[in-house]
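Fold this sequence, please.
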Amino acid sequence: MEEQTRATSTARGHLEKGQRALAAQNLAEAQAQLELAVEADPKLDEAHFALGILELQRGEATAAIPHFRKVIELAPKSFQGHYHLALAYLRDQKLQEGAEELERAVAINPRHADAAYNLGVVLTELDRPKEALTYLRRASNLGPKRADVTFHLIQAELASGHSEEARREAEEGVKLFGADAAWQKTVGEALLHYGQPIEAISHLSEVLRLEPGPDIRRQLAAAHLEARDPGRVLALLQNATSAEDHYLLASAYLQMHRMTEADQESQLALTLEPQNPRYLLQRARMDQHLGKHLESLAVLEEVSQLNPKWPEPYYSAGVSYYLLHRYADARQSLDRALELDPSSVRALFLYSASLANEGRNREAEKVLSRAIARQPGNPRFQYHLGAIRLRDNREAEAQQAFEQAIRLKPDYAPPHYQLGKLFERAGQLKRATEELEIAVRYQPDLAQAFYHLGRIYNRLGEKEKSEKALSTFRQFKQAPTTEDREFIEGIQQELQRSER
């Protein structure tokens, strides 16, 4: 016992010297003293901990890990041991192991703000944002408001689909950190990434005011493109100088259907950077808008060679093949796009459409259901689900899908139109009239709805209304269409919408 006491005393003497040397950044002396401490008393967990800290200060995370593991072996309930082992794992790019150790550290000390914050950040990076929210909210509540905690909380809310909560958190954050251009920029970028361009614009506009420069001007222009406000893009980029400026201007003109200017700006971008995959992709999509699908496919092949891991050219090739009615080729391209990005609902939607156009409706419905599972609040997907079921003569199931689309978006005209036709077939003329009248109220250019209204008004003996509806229909210079034709046109409209 006396010998052990002397050994411990000797070890602690070396430990104190090592800690002083460590504090003074004398790492060589610190290592020598700490190794002597461990040699004198191998069970002195503080010495192993200090050696781990020393390795972290050297930037040697891999070397630090065994020391912190030894600490935990000697003191399983050591918060500092688990916490610093987690930090070493994270610096060594071992996110899963880092998350596990942070979870153990937080279980030991639930009120440690930094541990909760780091766990929230790592869980977000591991694509577990809903779990991350618990810890980020805790970190936010445990101490004074911090810009980094607030940002990651907003990011996790967005990744979890809680857009309203993210917006509220961002509004509160602005009161504290609004003068911090870097914070405003990261929040704006996150909002833009998660499909909230209007909210992103307010943050990025403030950055432009605080620290004006060409890069933030372009980023703000990109946000206005996402918000479908191409006029603001033209105003922001009046003095275009870079390839990116011309690319953004081309995108704006494309949204405005000013194809001549779009073509000019696209060519200018490519003149400056002829091998830029994004600019080439834009060129290919412009060819698609002009119906030049073979030319588009040739450009897309070049893009995929330049960047073979990018799903966009494969998806766009799927669009061209689809519009050329080469459905098997479309699915082959979409298979590659989905391999690279399994979460792409656009690719799933188009894959479903290609199957449906070959009469493989049950398979099409199965694929579309995968897209719906990823975006259950998308009314257009519910509408197209109904359209597929209608092609398969499953009218009751089609009606359910159309009604769900309307619940999600009451002012969405196409499902009202389809319900009107279903009620017309069933002889429920009053309900048919109500649905069709709603359809044309929300979409006054929905020609086929006026055609069916004209027929129903005539059956109800309302000759004046019938003639007025049919006259409106004739103004669109269209002939009555089949279910198949309506389905194909609906898919084409959806593709145009997704490319805007």
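The mean pLDDT is 92. Residues 377-500 form a domain with the Serine Threonine Protein Phosphatase 5, Tetratricopeptide repeat fold (CATH 1.25.40.10).
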